[in-house]
Automatic annotation (TrEMBL):
GO biological process: DNA-templated transcription
Organism: Labrys okinawensis
Protein's UniProt name: LysR family transcriptional regulator
SUPFAM superfamilies with a match to the protein in the record: Periplasmic binding protein-like II, Winged helix' DNA-binding domain
Keyword match DNA-binding: yes
Domain HTH lysR-type: 1-58
Pfam hit, one: HTH_1
Source lineage: Bacteria, Pseudomonadati, Pseudomonadota, Alphaproteobacteria, Hyphomicrobiales
InterPro entries, per the entry: LysR-type_TF_proteobact-type, LysR_HTH_N, LysR_subst-bd, WH-like_DNA-bd_sf, WH_DNA-bd_sf
Similarity comment: Belongs to the LysR transcriptional regulatory family.
Key words, A-Z: DNA-binding, Transcription, Transcription regulation
Positions of transmembrane segments: none
Length: 306
């Protein structure tokens, strides 16, 4: 049983096709197919059903897959550990992050890190859907929000503040709310991946959840920002998205007398797995790059709205 055959099987099972797996492995389809066939002969069973339309994992293949993933991961981590013992950060690193933050801030911070460590092979998955950190599919997951799950192994990268914002046109038409109770009659722009409890504030008696009338519910922060600029309603947006629009005057801050619940940009990694040296180095690099307070809040006169 050869390691390259196991790695090919894992890649095909995860990609759902030999073509996609071949691209990710930088091999030809024929080489991947040959390695799969050799692996199946060595284990004495069929691991994948192949038809002209689709490819699926057999029952035996599913039983073998989880251990195959662990084998590939352990070998990758062993090779990376040897490189780190020589003072070099090397090997694959899989990270997931939200789209807007990834495009606006994570990418510019990552590029110098990758240039300084050319042997690191970063696989970055930008997606606003929540990722199951415990699945082990990623070395680390970067997220923005409240750190509520104490089971997560979390490194805080930067504090993050969210503020109620709207266009001047909307506020001229509908009025400016001055208290949490006045928000009920306004139209809200909500981030759907947070569920129904998107607007959370710290009141004198603890967390208060506001559910305004829904004008738009969407799973992307850029869309909420643009909808607020278009005058469709009020959004509760982090400064890393809304900062430039606030400074330019296209969005106005709304002060209701209480703050939104404290949040962070954080990197979570699977519990029970020792984080690699390159993941720790990346976390420290991102913390330095973002700053405390983070650079995206510089030059903003928001003290009156806190």
């Amino acid at each position: 049983m050869k390691l390259d055959g196991i790695a090919s099987f894992v890649a095909v099972a995860e990609a759902g096709s030999i073509s996609e797996a071949a691209r990710s492995l930088r091999l030809s389809k024929s080489v991947v197919s040959e390695r799969l066939g050799e692996l199946e002969r060595s284990v004495g069973t069929i691991l994948l059903h192949r038809t002209t339309r689709r490819l699926s994992v057999t029952e035996d293949g599913a039983a073998f897959l989880e251990r195959a993933k662990r084998i590939v991961r352990e070998v990758e981590e062993a090779a990376a550990d040897l490189a780190e013992r020589r003072g070099t950060l090397a090997g694959p690193m899989r990270i997931a992050a939200p789209i807007t933050f990834g495009r606006l801030h994570l990418g510019p911070a990552l590029f110098p890190f990758l240039a300084a460590h050319p042997q690191v092979e970063l696989i970055l998955d930008l997606d606003d859907r929540r990722v199951d950190i415990a699945s082990g599919a990623y070395d680390g997951v970067i997220r923005h929000g409240v750190i509520a799950d104490t089971r997560l192994m979390v490194w805080r990268l930067a504090p993050s503040r969210r503020f109620l914002v709207a266009s001047a046109d909307y506020l001229d038409r509908e009025g400016t709310p001055r208290s949490i109770g006045e928000l009920d009659r306004h139209k809200g722009l909500f981030y759907s991946n947070r569920g129904a409890a998107d607007w959370r504030f710290l009141g004198p008696d603890g967390v208060e959840i506001v559910r305004a009338k829904v004008a738009l519910r969407v799973n992307n922060g850029d869309m909420i920002r643009d909808a607020a600029i278009a005058g469709l309603g009020i959004g509760l947006l982090p400064t890393f998205i809304a900062g430039p629009e606030i400074r330019a005057g296209r969005l106005k801050l709304i002060d209701i007398g209480i703050r939104s619940e404290p949040e962070f940009v954080f990197l979570a990694h699977p519990e029970g797995r020792r984080p690699s040296a390159k993941l720790r180095a990346l976390a420290e690099h991102l913390k330095r790059s973002f700053g405390d307070p983070p650079y995206w809040e510089e030059g903003m006169s928001i003290a009156a709205s806190t």
